[in-house]
Amino acid sequence: MASISTSGWDVVSVTDIDTMNKIINLEGKELYPSEFAESITILNNVLKIVGEWDTWEMLHEASGKKISFRCHIKAGNVEFYNKDDNKHYEMNTNGTLSYLDIEVALDGIVDDPKKWIENDKTSILTATTQCFKLMITQKEKIIVTSSTFTNEQIGNNNLALFCQNAFQLWFNNNIEAFGQIFSIVLIGLEASQGDFQWLKPSAYSYAANNSIDGKTAAFGTLALIDGKTDINERQQTIDVGALQIVKPFGANAALIISKTMFVKHILLKAAVNLIKNTTEEDFEISETGLSLSNKKEMVWQDFEGEDGIWSPLIPKNSFILTLQSDHIYINISNAHYRPRAGVTVYMSLEQNFKYKVEKNKKGEPIFVPDEKGMGDAHVYCHVELDKWLNWLSLVTGIITSIASVFALGIGVAGAISKGAQATLIGSEATRTASFSFKLLGIPINLEKLAPIAIDIQNGIARNPTVFNAVKLGFTITAATTGITFGAIMIANAIYNEKYNDVPSFRVFADNLTGAIQWPRVENMELKSATLADSFVIGLNIT
Q1: How far apart are CA 349 and CA 380, in angstroms?
Q2: What is the pLDDT of residues 223-264, one digit of tens each?
Q3: Calpha distance 501→524 (Å, rounded)
Q4: Which of the given ranges, 266-275, 369-378, 486-495, has the highest pLDDT on average?
Q5: Where does the sequence pass through the membrane (predicted)?
Q6: Between the CA of residue 188 and those of 116, 299, 440, 454, 501, what are the distances in Å?
Q7: Which has the closest alpha carbon to 216: 181, 255, 256, 246?
Q8: CA distance linking residue 184 with residue 512, whole number of Å
Q9: Contact 203, 177 (CB under 8 A)
Q10: Distance (Å, rounded) from C-alpha 316 to C-alpha 334?
Q11: Which of 163, 396, 413, 463 is the most exposed place for a label (fewest CB within 10 A)?
């Protein structure tokens, strides 16, 4: 899975240029003038262009804030005259249209926000709400980068460059008549439901870009959220790869939520649910914003085992939670406990979680844990013994105990114990023994996990790796749907693979699409959600 970057922006709303062109072609007569007429003086000569426009289309040659168009000429004439001579040329010949390529820049034009919020059920206007229409700006000149006239006489008589200059004058004199709205951005909205205020835009820009192979080009709105307004010198670029990720799901547009925002607003909540008796203040997000860790020593959980309660302590900065490519990654280092006098067990765990898209009974896509990557774990242990006497018997007993905790209710304790014992190494000199095991490739019936998941959501800490999967899974569901109740129902549905009543992430997406809008779009269908070092939502807009 490719990793998608937002290049320092919090949210990017992107679609391909082919989709933009469909909108332009459907509404072209409303978006751009249908006719042109302009004249320029060259020494004692006058050059006059008159004609009709055909289609306008955005070009794949896009970079940063510069947008390129190709403007086709349906019919046109060139007159070149002075007091003694008059020459007349048709621009097109043999039914082949002439065209000009132009480069434009956009700017936000202030508009009434009430016009754009009528269908948005996720937002409330405030006294500070502002609306901006991204349109071709008069602040920067339109540049005609090239011209192609199919009537060769225009070129043969050295008029092509003069015509190009006349067209450039016409374009810049008529910017006010260019009606295309590329995007609508509403700043300062209040979220009307759920914990989604952080998704509302607080600053914006735009960019266009094409893929390295030139096959895909895209236009996108760039936004800061979470109340941030300092754009600074952030890159004016978009990751076209997001469209390649959502395309297999039937989508032609994507919403990309940055890794930093995913960590801050989703994984931070997950951390609180994973570690006993903690709040968000007990964790620290890294300076880069790409991961989080625990600020102080913490009790992981009081896990139930066959021979009692097991309460490992996690040292400061030894719990790491982050998003890595297509999975969520947990690393717990040197969690320790004393199963008996004279024995200390240190445990480290690495666990990956993948997610997939299914559908509920409404036919809406839902984002649920993927049973093929439901917390595959590597567990590393070392045991410190006060005395070396009978070390093998003691450590073997500890392995059996740990296996029972990690396998409680899923019937694979023997497989875990066997795998751990196969790696066992002892050192009399240091009075330590080390072993490891993998919960990877061990066949586990998903239905067997359902009652464990329900117990966990009922407040019983069982089976650390399943505990992590259940708590993380529900946190992701709650954060992307706004549903903060029904944990047991959702756990039962996911682990029995019966998704009818699992809520969709539509409200999450609507909080963004209501604030960052594609104009002249009649239908918007939610298609997918994917982890790709960011959170990528696929949409089909028509």
Answers
A1: 6
A2: 999 999 999 889 999 999 999 999 999 999 999 999 999 999
A3: 22
A4: 266-275
A5: 388-416, 472-495
A6: 14, 40, 47, 40, 33
A7: 246
A8: 11
A9: no
A10: 10
A11: 396
